[in-house]
Amino acid sequence: MPSVFITGANRGIGLEFARQYSNAGWQVVLANRTPMAPKDFASLGMDVTEFHYDAMDDATAADIAKRLKGRPIDVAILNAGIDDQPDLPPELVTAEIWERAMLTNTFAPLHLAALLEPNLRIGQHKVLAAVSSLAASSTYTVPRQFAYRASKASLNQMWRNLSVDWKDWGAICLTLRPGRVKTRMTGFEGDLTPSESVSGLRRVIETATPAESGKLWGYDGQVVPW
Ligand code: NDP
């Protein structure tokens, strides 16, 4: 049975990934700061494990890696992310806001990816996906979101670095653009439901080959230039 590892799966896009992979019969490993609501957890299949994970606390990542030692992961989806106070003008963006965005959206996924490398190496699919954003692209002209856009642009670059570093063992390092999705992050406004977005992203993940590694892929199957 294939296995998927997902961060930030207690709500929003991450929860929908957990639902869809579980419905498809995958083994599902969740890494959540806030535990999944019991009714959501109960609605998933039998083979679900949930670990405590806080992107701001390296010890939680280390603990997960220790518990998963020797276990293959076929697909990892590093989805947890924040967009704090997106409308702030530049003069009000603080070092604290910047640091939290960079640690949560860039450093934490990179750190976790490094810890999970041994598991991905022994997995079948070898897909390491990180949920990025169109907001990281220079083609995006909506203003503000300073810290968020910087952190997701850095995430894209780190994933491209990994695609080079890990090419020798066939890693497929993808960043993903979910579209504008109705979740708490967007005030439940957007063009897509989590179900529509995740269905598209799963198609991208499941058809990706090493030739696609290092690029930003949209839910619609298109490469997004950045
Ligand atoms: P939500 O706000 O619904 O979910 C965010 C998830 O990230 C929650 O599970 C949250 O956990 C988790 N998270 C935040 N901070 C931490 C942390 N320090 N440690 C562990 N988990 C954390 O938003 P979405 O589902 O929309 O967002 C998922 C991803 O998609 C994000 O990376 C986001 O940037 C990206 N994205 C979303 C878009 C959209 O339109 N919705 C568009 C483009 C990208 P908790 O409940 O504990 O806070």
Structure notes:
InterPro entries: NAD(P)-bd_dom_sf (IPR036291), SDR_enzymes (IPR052184), SDR_fam (IPR002347). It holds the Pfam family adh_short. With 226 residues, the chain is of the alpha/beta class. Helices cover 39% and strands 16% of the residues. The chain has a single domain, classed as NAD(P)-binding Rossmann-like Domain (Rossmann fold), CATH 3.40.50.720. The protein has six helices and eight strands, in the order E-H-E-H-E-H-E-H-E-H-E-H-E-E. The chain is globular, with a radius of gyration of 16 Å. The chain binds NADPH dihydro-nicotinamide-adenine-dinucleotide phosphate (NDP). NADPH dihydro-nicotinamide-adenine-dinucleotide phosphate binds next to helix 1.
Task: Describe the secondary-structure layout.
Blueprint: E1 3-7, H1 12-23, E2 27-32, H2 38-43, E3 48-52, H3 58-67, E4 75-78, H4 95-121, E5 127-131, H5 146-165, E6 172-177, H6 194-207, E7 216-218, E8 223-224
The structure holds NADPH dihydro-nicotinamide-adenine-dinucleotide phosphate (NDP).
The site of NADPH dihydro-nicotinamide-adenine-dinucleotide phosphate has 28 residues, from helix 1.
GO molecular function: oxidoreductase activity, acting on the CH-OH group of donors, NAD or NADP as acceptor
InterPro entries: NAD(P)-bd_dom_sf (IPR036291), SDR_enzymes (IPR052184), SDR_fam (IPR002347)
Organism: Devosia aurantiaca
